[in-house]
Design a protein that fits this description.
The chain is of the alpha/beta class and about 400 residues long. Helix content is about 30%, strand content about 30%. The structure holds flavin-adenine dinucleotide.
C-alpha cells in the first residue's frame, strides 16, 4: 500500500487550492496525492466574489469592478460603490490551468484520474480506496467529495440554482464598468428570483437567471426565462450565445463537520465553507485553506482553535433561510433595503463574517423586524427539535 503525507480527494476548487497552498508553504516537500476523475480542462464555472486585498489568484482574474448595480422589484436601480472592495471574476478554466501548471513545478505531487470509493479512519492515518481498486494511505486525508445531506427535516435546505449564457452582441450594448449584482425586476413566481449580468466588455457578458428555492426547474424553463429576459426586457440586439453555465449550490444550515475524525478533514463545500445565506464559497475557501496550511506548518495539525463566537453568523444565515423558505417577506425587498439603508461596505463585511456586534445590530434594524423575529423563534424551535430527535446539529 502506497503511503503519502497528504491525500486530497477531489481536485476541484478547494482541492487544487489546498495543493497550491501546501506546495507554496514550508510543507512543500511533503508527498501529496490528488485523486480526481476529471481532466479539469473545461470552463465549467465562473467564480464571482468580493474582497479588499489582492487575491492569491489576482494575476489570472478575468475582470474586476469597483461599482455594482442592484435593481429592485420595481426596476429602481441603485449603483453601489464598493468602498474599497472589488467585485472579482475568475473563470474556472483559468484557475484549473494556472494551478495545475504551477503544481507540476513541484516534486512530491502525484495526481491520479480515479474516483474515491471509501475513506476510513485508522489509528495512524486514513485509508482511501478508489473505484479502480487502489488502496492508498496518508497521514492526513483532505476530502472535498463528501456529499452533504440536504434532506434532514429540521434544517433549511434551499438551493441556489442558476443557468447563464455568455452572450456576444454585434453592436456595443453593455457597460463594462458596471455589473448588475442582482436584478429583481423579473417575475418572482412566489420564489426569490433574480438576474445578474457580468459584463466582460461592451459586447460580451455573462447573464445568469438565478433562484433561491427548494427545488430545481426543468432545464427548458431556465432557458425560456432567460430568453424572455434577453429579448423582451433587456431588448438585447442581435446576439449569439458563446457558452452556457448551469449550477446548483446548497443554501443549507445542515451541520457540517470540517474535522469528522483525527486524520480526515473535509474542505470546500463538503467542509461547510459555503455561506448558507448567499451560496458564495470561493473567497471563504481561500481564507480557510490559507489559515489551515499556516496552522499545519506551525503546529503539525490542521485544526485551528474554533472561535465559537463566530458561529453566530451561521445562526443569522439560518434566520434568513427561514424567512426565504417560509416566504415571510419578499427577498427582493430585503436585499434592496439592506443595500439602501446601510453603507454597502457594512453589508459586504457582514456577508464575509467580519462585522462587529454593533454593526450587526445596525443591519438588523434595516430588515422587516417582526418577520425576522418570527424567523428567529422558528429557527430556535427547529434547533431544539433537531437536538431532541438526535439529528446532527452544529
Ligand atoms: C456553476 C457554478 C458556479 C459557481 N459560482 C460561484 C461564484 O460565483 N462564487 C462563489 O463563491 N461560489 C460559486 N460556486 C460555488 C462554489 O464556489 C463551487 O461549487 C466550488 O467549485 C466548490 O469547490 P469544491 O472544491 O468544494 O467543489 P468542486 O470544485 O466541485 O470540486 C469537487 C471535485 O471533486 C471531484 N469529485 C467528485 N466526486 C469524486 C470522487 N468520488 N472521487 C474523487 N473526486 C471526486 C469533482 O470532479 C470535483 O472536481 C459555483 C458553483 C457552481 C456549480
Amino acid at each position: 500500500m502506497k503511503h503519502f503525507d497528504y491525500i486530497i480527494c477531489g481536485g476541484g476548487m478547494a482541492g487544487l487550492s489546498l495543493a497550491y497552498y501546501l506546495k507554496k508553504s514550508r510543507l512543500k516537500n511533503k508527498s501529496v496525492l490528488i485523486i480526481e476523475p476529471q481532466d479539469k480542462n473545461t470552463n465549467d464555472r465562473t467564480w464571482a466574489f468580493w474582497e479588499k486585498r489582492p487575491n492569491t489568484f489576482e494575476d489570472i482574474l478575468y475582470r474586476k469592478w469597483g461599482l455594482v448595480q442592484l435593481i429592485d422589484a420595481n426596476g429602481n436601480a441603485q449603483v453601489i460603490d464598493m468602498g474599497g472592495y472589488q467585485y472579482k471574476l475568475l473563470r474556472g478554466i483559468d484557475f484549473y490551468t494556472f494551478v495545475t501548471t504551477e503544481l507540476r513545478k513541484y516534486a512530491g505531487l502525484e495526481w491520479i484520474i480515479d474516483s474515491v470509493k471509501t475513506i476510513k479512519e485508522e489509528s495512524d492515518g486514513a485509508i482511501v480506496e478508489t473505484q479502480n481498486g487502489k488502496i492508498l494511505k496518508a497521514s492526513l486525508v483532505f476530502d472535498s467529495t463528501f456529499q452533504l445531506d440536504l434532506t434532514l427535516k429540521h434544517n433549511h435546505n434551499l438551493l441556489q440554482h442558476f443557468k447563464g449564457y455568455v452572450v456576444k452582441t454585434k453592436t456595443p450594448f453593455f457597460d463594462p464598468v458596471l455589473p448588475v449584482m442582482m436584478n429583481f425586476n423579473i417575475e418572482q413566481k412566489g420564489d426569490c428570483r433574480f438576474i445578474y449580468i457580468l459584463p466582460f466588455d461592451k459586447n460580451t457578458a455573462l447573464i445568469e437567471y438565478t433562484l433561491f428555492s427548494e427545488s430545481l426547474l426543468a432545464q427548458d424553463e431556465y432557458d425560456s426565462e432567460l430568453r424572455k429576459y434577453l429579448v423582451h426586457q433587456l431588448q438585447l440586439p442581435d446576439y449569439q450565445i458563446l457558452e452556457k453555465e448551469f449550477g446548483v449550490i446548497p443554501m443549507s444550515d445542515v451541520a457540517t463537520e470540517e474535522f469528522p475524525s483525527e486524520h480526515i478533514i473535509r474542505i470546500g463545500t463538503a467542509g461547510g465553507y459555503t455561506n448558507p445565506a448567499t451560496g458564495y464559497t470561493f473567497q471563504n475557501t481561500q481564507r480557510k485553506l490559507q489559515k489551515m496550511v499556516e496552522t499545519l506548518e506551525r503546529t503539525g495539525s490542521p485544526k485551528a482553535k474554533k472561535n465559537w463566537f463566530e458561529s453566530r453568523f451561521r445562526f443569522y444565515a439560518s434566520v434568513l433561510l427561514n424567512v426565504l423558505e417560509q416566504k415571510r417577506h419578499p427577498a427582493a425587498d430585503i436585499f434592496s433595503k439592506l443595500y439602501r439603508k446601510n453603507p454597502p461596505v457594512r453589508v459586504f463585511r457582514f456577508l464575509d463574517g467580519d462585522t462587529t456586534m454593533w454593526e450587526e445590530l445596525q443591519l438588523m434594524n434595516t430588515v422587516p423586524k417582526t418577520k425576522f423575529l418570527a424567523a428567529v423563534g422558528a429557527v430556535i424551535m427547529r434547533k431544539i427539535k433537531a437536538r431532541l430527535s438526535g439529528q446532527p446539529h452544529p
